[in-house]
Every structure is written in structure tokens, then in C-alpha cells.
Amino acid sequence: MALVTKAIKGTQDLLPNESYKNRYVEQTMLDIASKFGYKEIRTPVFEYTELFSRGVGDTTDVVQKEMYTFDDKGGRSITLRPEGTAGAMRAFLEHGLFNEPLPQKVSYLTSCYRYEKPQAGRLREFHQFGVECLGTAAPAADAELISLAHEIFSHLGVEGLRLEINSIGCPTCRKKYHEALHSYFESKKADLCETCLDRLGRNPMRILDCKSPVCSEIAKDAPKVLDYICEDCSAHFEVVKKHLDAMNIPYVVNPTIVRGLDYYTRTVFEFVSEQIGAQGTVCGGGRYDGLAEQLGGNSTPSLGFALGIERLMLLMQAQNTPLPEEEKPDLYIASMGEEATVLAAKLAASLREEGISVQYDVAGRSVKAQMKFANKLGVRNTVVIGDSEIESGKVTVKDMNGGESVEMELDGFEDSYQSYLIQSAVAEIAGTDGIDMSGINLADLF
Ligand code: ATP
Ligand code: MG
Asked: Are the C-beta atoms of 267 and 240 separated by less than 8 Å?
């Protein structure tokens, strides 16, 4: 296929017959987050490379191998965002949001870019829903954040996700842990991959997150961070668990989770599925108390998570999670001849103003072809306007699902059609709830 008609490897199109599902899922997330006090933030798709090398950490896979980095025409090193936290924190610092009441709770839906080996659930352009809770050190915030992700999954009807939590301590207690890790990996030096050899000197914890099979095998027997965390970190972790227990959120403690980004401290967590293959982590997050300072700001203990939209959609597809049906157009106005099409356009315009979804012929087709098209669209009702309808001043609204046809005057059609819709809706509700509507004059209700 010609290059111009082929999407780049690791990117994908979301077509109209699928996009409404993502729209629903994304809107649900934003709405639930909003109930938890999160407000949307939008930051640029590219930032100075240094934001990510400092923020995400230059010993991470993301920074070392995966970033889309280039020099712009002014010779500045620019990177397409590989994740959303660094940009959100940059904006928080740049615009002085730390002067606002804390914590500042922000949410976002963004595209992210990572140069990875494309496979199921791993793309080069992917999308994240993320939230950041900026400016609180209290463990209650960790549990509330986790409960938000939990609430999103349960509201969407996603099942079988395992919540795994861990604490990776603070810089103080991590020093001891780094030493223990260092001496463990030092003894396995001969087998470690090139990148991990470099990490051994700079940040041995990163080796625990290496995707190479040999390194991950070695990492299995490495000292566990939970055995090294200090009293304060341990107490923090206990309160997080207490809150989760109180909220009836099931979890398992997995002492091997360290997360792929350098900024994490204390609580880290993942929601993992066994149903979508090797890329099973649908959502990951944790606390990053040191990030603000790392970016040159004042100490701002914070936390957040990011949820991979494509992985979530894969999981929902695998589980056949029910989604609301796509909205179908309510009315198709078929027209015969120019005068009738002008009238169709006029009626459609006023009905649309009332919030009704209407389509009419904008392709110059025969009435037969228009009806076929309307059928394919799955419209609820159709009406035909031709010379005889214009002459008689009457049209017939046909219910495409086999209901009764109703004749209406063209004069005042917009109002008559609206009351017809209301009456059908009432009749539908009455029908499904088994309410006896006989003897009730619908006209009295409106
Ligand atoms: P993984 O271990 O799978 O590489 P990660 O630790 O790099 O994940 P994060 O940086 O925490 O992932 O990103 C949060 C979420 O974003 C992941 O849990 C996943 O759902 C999604 N995600 C990350 N990388 C990709 C990718 N390349 N393609 C699709 N989704 C991704
Ligand atoms: Mg990764």
C-alpha cells in the first residue's frame, strides 16, 4: 500500500463505528473524577526534553529508550509527552497553583508517545486517562485516589482486575534498600543486560523493572523493599490499607511492584488483568513526593495514576462488558425535488435546535435510495416530503420499528413532531413498567 494511505506502525485509527464507545468510557471517567473533586487540566503535547529526563528520571526505560525526542527549528530539544504527570506538575508550578487551596486535584485525557515494540496493548501513540492530587502527604489521599480508580472500573462494569499495592519507601529508607540491592545485583553482574549494568551504579531499583527475561528472573530473588522501609513509611502504608479495608476495596500486597518511573515514593499500585495477555497492567500510579522539588519547585507531596485507554478497551472487549448503544438519528426527512429538500433543511434546522437529531438528503438521491440510507442509519422515524405532501400540507411520520404511522400537518410540524416524541416516550415507559395508561389523557400531562 502506498505510504500516504497507511498509518505509522504503533499508531491506530479510531473509526466512527467504535469511537462512541471510547467517548462513553472517557466521559464516565471524567464524570466520576469530577465527583471526587478533580477538574480537567490540558497541557501541551510536547515539552522541553529536560522536563521528562528530570521528572520521569534518566535511568528509566521511558527516558533511556522510549522517548520521541527531536530538535525543533530553533535547535531546542523537544519531546512528545510519554506520560502526563510531569506536564501537570510543570503547569502546577508555573502557574502557582500551590497558592490555591490544596490539594489541587486535576484530571486529564491525553495522547502519549513512546517508542516501544508495538504489540497487543502496547502502542507508540496511546491514550491515558490520568489524575493528579497535588499537595497532600496524608495517607487518606492515597486510599481515596485508589478508590477513584476502583470506582471507575466498577461503574464501567469491568471485572476481574486485581489491585496490587506496595510501598517503596522514601529517599531516607531507600538508601539502605539501594545498598542491599546493589550488593545482590553486584553478585549477578555477569548475567545482567547492558542497560542494567549502567543502572547498577546509578539506580539499582530500576533493575527490578527491567523487561529482559534474564534480568527479571534475577530480580525475583532480590531483597524486597517492604523489609527495608522506615517506621514512618510503614505507618503510612498501614493507614492506606486501613482506609482501603474500610471502603471494602480488595487488594493484595505485591512487594515486587516498583513502577517504571523514578518519581515514585511510598505507595505504588497497579490494577492488573490476566485477560489481555502480557500487557496486563491497565492502571498504574502512586505517590511522588519528590517530583516538585526535582523540577525546581517547593516540596509538594503528591500522587496520581494513569489508566491506559487502549488496554481498558481491550479488556472490556474481552469481557463483553455491556456498553450503551450508539445514539441513532431520530428522524430522516426524505425529499423529492428541490423545493421539498429546502423545506426538509428548514424543518431539520428547527428540530435540531430543539435537540432532536435529524438527517435529510444532502447527496441528491432518489427517495428510494434515501429510504435505504435512512434504514442503514437505523433512524427511528421517517417522513417523506414530495409535491403531493406540499400540496396537501400533510405528511406521514412512519415508525421504522413497526409502530403506527401518524399523519401530521406540515404547518407547525416541528411542534407536532415534538409532542409525538414525548407521547411515544411516555408510552414506552408505561409499557415497560406495566403502568395502566388507559383513561389518562396524555395531553393533560404536558
Ligand atoms: P508497562 O509496564 O506495561 O510498560 P508502564 O509502567 O510503562 O507500563 P505507565 O507509565 O505507568 O506504564 O503508564 C500507565 C498506563 O498507561 C499503563 O498501565 C498502561 O495501561 C498504559 N500504557 C503504558 N505504556 C503503553 C503503551 N506503550 N501502549 C499502550 N498503553 C500503555
Ligand atoms: Mg512501559
From this structure: yes
